[in-house]
């Protein structure tokens, strides 16, 4: 008990020290009162007092009588802290994402900014048939026998799929959730308290930023590696220098960029997690949408010490409306179920029963093979067209996975401005500000290429390109 509370105040002191070192809390800034700090961090008053006293003893902060604690004025900030790795506090992205998702729900928009694959590609008649059969059975549709941790049959099937992929798994390792977002959010909530530090890739699915905002977390980011997707040196530097509790990473078919990190790098990531005793929430929701022969491995494959919580779902394979996902983590299974039972409760019983029957058939594998081929075909068609019509000052990132193209616009074109102009034409794209903090260049967009290239979509792509050219020209004329 004694040791645990000692650890807690040191952890809090380290977090505050980092806020000072990184310049987020400048010299002579007043620290939150003991009570306010206790409330926002979830620590006891005594823990906060001990942390403040430790920081004072080390010279990071000083007290003013009857006024409180202040950041010291003469601190040397190590240059290591400004090296590539960045700190992001006070994240505010939820309203932006909310507006974006609402725009996508409007009638008659061309949803090039959607994260979901085209529904006709996902629709499988065998699955629909099984689903309608189950809908008629009271036990499937109305009973609660798939409450947390979820249907035993479904967990058995998922466990054997993991084992076939070289990750020895028992059904007890898996908790079924309401989609991957639920799995990711529950995992992050189980592992953190407000004020903790987490690590994200600089460019990442907005769900990670939203979760950090909701849970009041500080975010350390590392940049993408231009060649390998993942910068191992920046990762190690962040783990070494900052009090990071958890990382949330996408390493297969990264959303929004599309790269898949090599197995060698995944092995190094697992080793670093073990060395620095940091957990990883691995978002592997696109794991089945690879075009090459071999399914890419996950970091979970290399994780012999249970530091990885592996999250995925059926949303990108059978449709986001299925709302069935899972998290694979033996040590946190209980904590996650506790959170589940006071929030999202469980995934639909009906869907879990239908999935058990469908995944067990050869139709499932066939569906996956066909889906991969169609996505690859559509993405290549978009790529060819865009390569031809986009100005040479744009760069298209093409990877052999998924259904996104990440496009670099001319440096003077702000993707948020492009987004606004295109909304008037009922075209929705995804600007980079949905995936990054706004201190980065805004000249990137993500396009969803899963839809068949029909005439209206083709026209929309031409409009996007015309608009980019117009904005580039206007910016050139302004001299900006
Ligand atoms: C990278 C990523 N992770 C997680 C999710 C959430 O998936 P689900 O619909 O299963 O909650 C999405 C959905 O778009 C996603 O793109």
From TrEMBL:
Q: Which family does it belong to?
A: In the C-terminal section; belongs to the class-I pyridoxal-phosphate-dependent aminotransferase family.
Matches recorded under Gene3D superfamilies: Aspartate Aminotransferase, domain 1, Type I PLP-dependent aspartate aminotransferase-like (Major domain), Winged helix-like DNA-binding domain superfamily/Winged helix DNA-binding domain
Which SMART domains does the entry mention? HTH_GNTR (SM00345)
Pfam families from the entry?
A: Aminotran_1_2 (PF00155), GntR (PF00392)
Keywords of this entry: DNA-binding, Pyridoxal phosphate, Transcription, Transcription regulation
**Keyword Transcription part of the UniProt annotation:** yes
Please name the PANTHER family in this protein's record.
Answer: HTH-TYPE TRANSCRIPTIONAL REGULATORY PROTEIN GABR (PTHR46577), TRANSCRIPTIONAL REGULATORY PROTEIN (PTHR46577:SF2)
Lineage top rank: taxon: Bacteria
* Residues annotated as domain HTH gntR-type: 6-74
Instruction: Give GO MF terms, alphabetically.
Output: DNA binding; DNA-binding transcription factor activity; pyridoxal phosphate binding
Q: What is this protein called?
A: MocR family
Its ancestry begins with: Bacteria, Pseudomonadati, Pseudomonadota, Alphaproteobacteria, Acetobacterales
């Amino acid at each position: 008990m004694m040791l645990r509370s000692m650890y807690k105040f040191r952890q809090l002191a380290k977090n505050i020290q980092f806020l000072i070192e990184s310049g987020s809390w400048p010299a002579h800034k007043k620290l939150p009162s003991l009570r306010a700090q206790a409330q926002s961090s979830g620590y006891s008053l005594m823990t906060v007092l001990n942390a403040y006293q430790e920081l004072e003893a080390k010279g990071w902060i000083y007290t003013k009588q009857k006024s409180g604690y202040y950041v010291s004025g003469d601190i040397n900030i190590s240059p290591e802290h400004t090296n590539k790795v960045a700190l992001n506090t006070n994240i505010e992205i939820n309203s932006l994402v909310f507006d974006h998702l609402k725009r996508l729900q409007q009638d008659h928009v061309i949803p090039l900014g959607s994260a979901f694959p085209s529904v006709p590609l996902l629709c499988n008649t065998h699955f629909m048939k099984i689903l309608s059969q189950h809908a008629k059975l009271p036990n499937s549709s109305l009973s609660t026998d798939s409450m947390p941790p979820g249907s035993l049959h479904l967990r058995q099937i998922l466990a054997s799929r993991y084992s076939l992929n070289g990750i020895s798994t028992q059904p007890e390792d898996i908790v079924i959730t309401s989609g991957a977002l639920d799995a990711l959010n529950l995992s992050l909530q189980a592992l953190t308290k407000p004020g903790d530090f987490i690590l994200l890739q600089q460019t990442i699915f907005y769900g990670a930023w939203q979760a950090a905002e909701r849970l009041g977390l500080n975010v350390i980011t590392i940049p993408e590696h231009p060649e390998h997707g993942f910068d191992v040196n920046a990762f190690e530097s962040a783990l070494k220098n900052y009090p990071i509790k958890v990382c949330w990473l996408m390493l297969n078919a990264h959303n929004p960029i599309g790269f898949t990190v090599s197995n060698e790098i995944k092995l190094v990531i697992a080793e670093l997690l073990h060395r620095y005793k940091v957990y990883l929430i691995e978002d592997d929701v696109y794991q089945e949408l690879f075009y090459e022969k071999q399914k890419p491995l996950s970091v979970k494959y290399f994780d012999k010490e249970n530091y990885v919580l592996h999250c995925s779902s059926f949303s990108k394979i059978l449709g986001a409306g299925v709302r069935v996902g899972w998290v694979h983590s033996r040590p946190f299974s209980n904590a996650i179920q506790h959170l589940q039972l006071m929030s999202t409760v469980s995934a639909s019983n009906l869907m879990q029963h239908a999935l058990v029957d469908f995944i067990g058939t050869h139709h499932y594998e066939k569906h996956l093979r066909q889906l991969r081929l169609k996505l690859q075909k559509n993405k290549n068609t978009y790529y060819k067209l865009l390569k031809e019509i986009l100005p040479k000052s744009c760069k298209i990132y093409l990877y052999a996975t998924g259904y996104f193209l990440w496009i670099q616009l001319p440096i003077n074109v702000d993707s948020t401005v492009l987004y606004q102009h295109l909304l008037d034409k009922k075209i929705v794209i995804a600007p980079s500000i949905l995936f990054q903090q706004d201190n980065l260049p805004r000249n990137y967009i993500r396009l969803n290429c899963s839809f068949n290239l029909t005439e209206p979509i083709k026209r929309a792509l031409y409009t996007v390109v015309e608009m980019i050219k117009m904005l580039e020209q206007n910016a050139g004329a302004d001299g900006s």
